[in-house]
Amino acid sequence: MKNSKILIFMFVLILALLAPFSLARAFDFDPNDIVSDGELQDYKSMDLTAIQEFLNNQDGILKNLSTIDAFGSQRLASEIIYNAAQTYKINPKWILATLQKEQSLITNPNPSQKNIDWAMGYAVCDSCSIYDPQVALFKGFGIQVDKATWRIRYYYDNPEKFNFLPGKLCQIDGQPVIPNNQSTANLYNYTPHMQGNFNFWNIWNRWFAKTFPDGSLLQQADDNQTWLIADGKRRLFETKIAFTSRYANSKVIIVSRNDLQRFEIGNPVKYPNYSLLRSPAGVVYLIVGLEKKQIESNEVFKEIGYNEEEAIDVTDEVLSYFADGRTITLASLYPQGALLQDKKTGGVFYVEDGIKYPVWSKEVLTINYNKKYKTVKVSSEELDKYATAANGLKLHDGVLVKTKTDSKVYVISNGERRWIANESSFNQLGYSWSDVVTVSDKVFSLHSEGNVIDLLIPASNIATNN
Question: Domain total for the chain?
Answer without folding.
Answer: 5
